[in-house]
Amino acid sequence: MSAPAFPQPSAVKELAARLHGSVITPADPEYDEARRVWNAMIDRSPALIVRAADESDIAVSLAFARKHSLPLAVRSGGHNVAGHGTVEAGLLLDLRAFNEVTVDPERRLVQVGGGATLGELDRATSAHGLAVPVGVISQTGVAGLCLGGGFGWLTRTYGLTVDSLVAADLISAEGEAVHADAHANPELLWGLTGGGGNFGVVTSFTFTAHPLPPTLYAGNLIYHRARWHQALVALGDWATELPDEMTVIANVMVPPPEWDMGDEPILVVGFLWADPDHDAGAACVERFTRLAPPEIEDVSTVTWPEWQSVSDSIFPKGVRAYWKNTAFDSLSEEVINVLIARGAEQTWQGTAFDIHIMGGAMGRVPAEATAFPDRSSAFWLNIYGFWTDEEQDEHHVQFVRGFAHQMERFSTGGQYVNFSSNDERAPHGFDAFGVYGAEKLARLTALKRRYDPQNLLRLNHNIAVPDVDTDAAIP
Ligand code: FAD
């Protein structure tokens, strides 16, 4: 691949004059902070960063990138683990200014800017007793999360984030303003339910918002190593009878020092009961704890925004990260043995894995209704490393890869793009066929041809255009 030509200062000046937002170049004091993303392993230096203020800025930036053959990255929350939210020697389009959230409580609709964070969305909806199902860390961007799927504490109650998406406005790669909903461009709306940022820059998402009580029954049930087997067997049993109101994410990690729980890995079974009847929630939890009494029980009533930011400090911006995931169907003895062995190996602060219990509302959405790869599995495993010392990169990356490869034989197919670093075995770091399968990939490719025929938006989990050689592996 030939190196992209750096735009002339006069061209950058001309661009700045056309924008309502700002341009940041390496000469600017804020450049270093502005270029950084959540994953510090992704250390890239864009030629310029555009902080877009409105739709016109987006169209102008896309045209500029095309004219100057600059690789383009689109960023909202900057949490993408694979590092798609920045680019080396290209144009980084920063959408954080698009962070407005407008709630229509009567119609239970919420309009969210393409640069808003989950925290901004959660605070706005909870003021009206409403919520959109999103992820679990409040600084994550709604855009990146939604475009890939969106798992979190309301997945079993209200589905994935994409299951609540009813409309979107975007600027296509060609600079065209497009609205997508059930009547206008419904196929494009479908593409946005898991097909990533391949078709345009989304300026606004419209979601159905769902009722949520003012306080929620939630907590963590904690087990030391000797009780993991008992707890994981019980988790498998509990999963078969969970009502939709209960979402469970179990996790094995070394507790942060401020928890004062020693430095051995622990199993934390986290749960959220999304219903006003807390006694019914407690009874549901008791069915699990009878089978596996926890050593520590940290259960309380919390508001939605409180619960949604409770883990924020564990995932600070600037850690080094490498993630992989797999879906599987049973907490069989073989699977439990792998989980226990790998969990016990995780003796350092940082690497952890989550087991999401799937099903509920999420599992009942027909497979073809969204572009999201696979809904059929009972569990989803996300193995995530986040550490600070560069010297540990090789060891921790290999740990995550080795663990993921060991789980492959239990995999029921499909992968969640948002929980994935680049795939070291795929030609351009992403095996689109393996993730989406033939039918969904064909539909996504047709959309790509329609909205981004030159594959300008290729710094993502890329839906390549077969006859356009754009070298998807641009760093
Ligand atoms: P960015 O890096 O800003 O964007 C990611 C990509 O999305 C971009 O490269 C671009 O291709 C596209 N994009 C972003 N904005 C737009 C836009 N407006 N229009 C078009 N394309 C756009 N996922 C879950 O499902 N549940 C979780 O609970 C969860 N927790 C997480 C916690 C942490 C600490 C981290 C780091 C990630 C977590 N994720 C979770 C994964 C997360 O969904 C993805 O990393 C997602 O890509 C983050 O979106 P972002 O907007 O913050 O990222």
Give a concise summary:
By secondary structure, this protein is an alpha+beta fold. The protein has three domains: 9-94, Uridine Diphospho-n-acetylenolpyruvylglucosamine Reductase, domain 2 (2-Layer Sandwich), CATH 3.30.43.10; 101-211, Uridine Diphospho-n-acetylenolpyruvylglucosamine Reductase, domain 3 (2-Layer Sandwich); 216-419, Vanillyl-alcohol Oxidase, Chain A, domain 3 (3-Layer(aba) Sandwich), CATH 3.40.462. The protein is 29% helix and 22% strand.
Secondary structure: elements and pairs:
Layout: H1 9-18, E1 22-24, H2 31-35, E2 48-51, H3 55-67, E3 72-75, E4 91-94, E5 101-104, E6 109-113, H4 118-126, E7 130-131, H5 142-148, H6 155-158, E8 165-172, E9 177-181, H7 186-191, E10 200-208, E11 210-211, E12 216-223, H8 228-239, E13 246-253, E14 266-273, H9 278-289, E15 296-302, H10 304-308, E16 320-328, H11 333-345, E17 352-357, H12 360-364, E18 379-387, H13 393-407, H14 432-451
Parallel strand pairs: 2-4, 3-4
Antiparallel strand pairs: 1-2, 5-6, 6-10, 7-11, 8-9, 8-10, 12-14, 12-15, 13-14, 13-17, 16-18, 17-18
Helix pairs in contact: 8-11
The protein binds flavin-adenine dinucleotide (FAD).
Explained architecture:
This protein is α+β, with helices and mostly antiparallel strands. The protein has 14 helices and 18 strands. The protein has helices at 9-18, 31-35, 55-67, 118-126, 142-148, 155-158, 186-191, 228-239, 278-289, 304-308, 333-345, 360-364, 393-407, 432-451, and strands spanning 22-24, 48-51, 72-75, 91-94, 101-104, 109-113, 130-131, 165-172, 177-181, 200-208, 210-211, 216-223, 246-253, 266-273, 296-302, 320-328, 352-357, 379-387. Helix 8 crosses helix 11. It starts with 8 loop residues before the first helix and ends in a 24-residue tail after the last helix. The site of flavin-adenine dinucleotide has 37 residues, from strand 3, helix 5 and strand 10. Flavin-adenine dinucleotide binds next to strand 3, helix 5 and strand 10.
